[in-house]
Write a structure and sequence with these properties.
Elements (H helix, E strand, L loop, with lengths): L1 H21 L7 H31 L10 H18 L4 H13 L10 H29 L2 H6 L1 H24 L9 H9 L5 H12 L5 H29 L6
Helix pairs in contact: 1-2, 1-9, 2-3, 2-4, 3-4, 5-9, 7-8, 7-10, 9-10
Amino acid sequence: MSESAFNDAMGAIVTFGVLAVAMGTGEFSPAASLLDLLKQSIIGIGAGAGLGYLAALLIAHERWAFLAEYGPVVTLMAVIGAYFAADGLQASGFMAVFVFGIVLGNKDALGFKMELGQAQKLDDYVMTTAFIMRLFIFILLGTQVDFSLMNQYLVGGIIVVTIFMLVARPVTVFLCALPDRRAQWSLNEMLFMCWTRETGVIPAALAGLLLGMNAPGAQMIASVTFIAILMTILIQAPTTKWLGRKLGLLEG
């Protein structure tokens, strides 16, 4: 979950950086791009952490939780505030809401305790909202997909996604996990990580945003994204349990 979340937040920042260059609203410079990435990440983390802590304080603090009964409303207002605060500071709203979620989701570790009923109500609200948002994102992408264009990019899209699945993903996993001696990942665990990666929500959302902005090549990007989602869901997702069993990784 953390791997996916950090990749998605950072990927969103990089995507909009590349988009600015492609649309002629920015110039590419490796040093400037890295500094901008660092600035957007740090400010986004700060905004998300600050608003997340404030939300936890208002709904779960022993003395100051006077809005405990309104946990879902406070969460919604605070997460919107985190996004627009970061965006107003020309930072990443995606990073802000991600860190907001980390802070609020780990409020117990920060010493904030909610009553069982209030905590369950908040959890149900978050899960339901997340589910609805996923539906809207995929509906948005689906309505924008042109099947004639997707057919035009079908072969190239399959080749690109196959390289991601069988080359890029495994190389990345081994480069990142193999040096991690503290975790002591086994070969079977790394092989499982190489295969288990259902691409979906954030790529779909970003592709939809590019289509809405009429970005250069947006139709091609959306088509390849749709192909990637289909391939990972139809090929990787159904074989995850089978692979886990074959590698001896399933828990009882």
